Amino acid sequence: VLDPQYGMFVWPCAVVLAQYLWAHRRSLPGKRVLELGAGVSLPGVLAAKCGAEVILSDSEELPRCLQNCRRSCLANSLPGLRVLGLTWGRLCPALLTLPPVDIILGSDVFFDPKDFEDILTTVYFLLEKNPHAQFWTTYQVRSADWSIEALLCKWKLKNIHIPLHSFGADKEHLASSPLPGRHTIEMMIISLAQSDGT
After folding, report:
1. What is the C-alpha to C-alpha distance for residues 177 and 90, in angstroms, rounded to an integer?
2. 170: domain range?
3. Transmembrane region positions (predicted)?
4. Residue 169 domain-assigned (yes or no)
5. How far apart are CA 32 and CA 51, in angstroms?
6. Shortest CA distance to 91 belongs to which of 124, 133, 69?
7. Contact between residue 170 and residue 164 where contact means Cβ atoms under 8 Å apart
8. I need a surface site. Which of 32, 123, 144, 158 has the fewest CB within 10 A?
């Protein structure tokens, strides 16, 4: 039986996003990275191991997930990594006082459609504060009826689809895990649309 707090597991999307980070590891040293909905924090921990300055976050309403983030940091010899409680769609002091970021990470945050707008509200806020930043996200296709396209237009965001084969994540086994190959996982990079709509 799955724990009702989904941030207690390494999901296939986290493995795929970690693969993307690994493929781009030479560009990570010195980058300022924020992981949203970090849970067990595989992508954020990997980014930190590759030299990025990382802040991990999960919902302030899920203390067990925040504790899991801290445990992942300790297990990976990263005791100084900052862990914040940030709830999607909610302005809070922690969000308002975040230092600048270059990359926002989110693996499988587009899980429940009721959260999609809150996630994109938070992402838009962060990208407005950091116009050159990008949101790197992986998601599992669970329903043909679920789409964020209209919300991207509403929030003046654009996305670029990243083919999994372009970073070696289209294999049946990835990072010694059989999980990614058994699921339909997609990756995209979201950024602010230009004022001319591009």
Report:
1. 35
2. 12-140+150-192
3. none
4. yes
5. 10
6. 124
7. yes
8. 144
Can you read off the two tokens belonging to residue 139? 């998601």
Q: How far apart are CA 93 and CA 70, in angstroms?
A: 20
Q: What is the pLDDT of residue 16?
A: 92
Taking residue 181's Cβ as centre, other Cβ atoms within 10 Å add up to 15
From the list 194, 185, 144, the residue with the least C-alpha distance to 162 is 185
Residue showing tokens 């990208």: 127
Domains of the chain: total: 1
Q: Is residue 7 part of a domain?
A: no
Residue 44 has a pLDDT of 96
Look at residue 35 in the predicted model and tell me its pLDDT: 97
Q: Read off the pTM.
A: 0.89
The residues that bridge with 160 in the sheet, in sequence order, are 189
Q: Is residue 36 part of a domain?
A: yes
Host H or E run for residue 64? helix 63-75
The domain spanning residue 111 has which CATH number?
Answer: 3.40.50.150
